[in-house]
């Protein structure tokens, strides 16, 4: 991976880029008025991070026209609805309450983690796992720095604990009954509606299917339940031992649950 900045960076931005490069053991490349495409042509790296005044952009060699930039996306709309009393299926089906500890095993852009973080509040905790380094860095920095005009939403964003980890290894290392809810959303790898943000991360994600071994570990670790989001026509619920949650007719997204308490 290589790291550069926007054109004519100030000392603060250059210092930020240097810090990232040191952390990632990546090459810091001076911009020198070159385009992103030109810089990529001079490198063998599949990815490039560009630090700008307002955001961190991740470019993938094969789709330079679709940089990944962190944004809370539809989660922001859901959170505003929750503040106005709307019921969110993710919270309803999981039984999530204030003070709960939630483990999101498929963080992606942390949209669902953000909904959980709002629900558990300051007394709870949301741990989100992302196994792919490029995606992890962009989302981690976004959670730290993305500005939201509604303080309670920004606070929920800042509270998420994003970790660079495989859920298989992370679950195996946890103690029995150490979290309340374990959540999986493998369907964001192949979404029904391709948003620009999701399209940008398609090649950066881990597409390995969930295994029975992972679900057994999740059941061991969770106190309340294990929750799975999938396409409504998916056979994963039956394959992995989940009971489908009741939902309206014609919905494309479904949830399955393994109740533990």
From TrEMBL:
Coiled coil: none annotated. Pfam families: SAM_MT. One of its GO terms (molecular function) is rRNA (guanine-N2-)-methyltransferase activity. It comes from the Bacteria. This is SAM-dependent methyltransferase. It comes from Paenibacillus montaniterrae. The gene is ypiP.
């Amino acid at each position: 991976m290589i790291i550069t900045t926007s054109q004519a960076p100030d000392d603060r931005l250059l210092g930020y880029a240097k810090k990232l490069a040191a952390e990632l053991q990546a090459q810091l490349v001076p911009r020198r008025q070159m385009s992103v495409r030109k810089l990529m042509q001079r490198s063998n790296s599949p990815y490039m991070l560009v630090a700008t005044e307002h955001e961190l952009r991740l470019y993938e060699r094969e789709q330079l026209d679709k940089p990944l930039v962190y944004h809370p996306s539809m989660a922001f709309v859901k959170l505003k609805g929750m503040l106005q009393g709307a019921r969110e299926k993710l919270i309803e089906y999981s039984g999530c309450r204030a003070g709960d500890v939630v483990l999101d095993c498929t963080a992606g852009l942390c949209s669902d983690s953000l909904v959980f973080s709002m629900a558990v509040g300051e007394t709870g905790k949301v741990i989100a796992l992302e196994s792919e380094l490029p995606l992890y860095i962009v989302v981690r920095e976004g959670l730290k720095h993305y500005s939201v005009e509604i303080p309670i939403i920004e606070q929920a964003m800042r509270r998420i604990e994003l970790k660079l980890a495989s859920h298989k290894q992370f679950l195996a290392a946890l103690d029995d009954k150490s979290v309340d809810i374990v959540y999986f959303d493998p369907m964001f790898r192949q979404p029904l509606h391709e948003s620009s943000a999701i399209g940008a991360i398609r090649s950066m994600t881990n597409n390995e299917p969930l295994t029975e071994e992972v679900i057994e570990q999740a059941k061991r670790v969770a106190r309340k339940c294990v929750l799975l989001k999938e396409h409504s026509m998916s056979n994963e619920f039956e394959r992995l031992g989940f009971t489908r949650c009741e939902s309206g007719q014609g919905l494309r997204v479904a949830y399955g649950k393994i109740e533990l308490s």
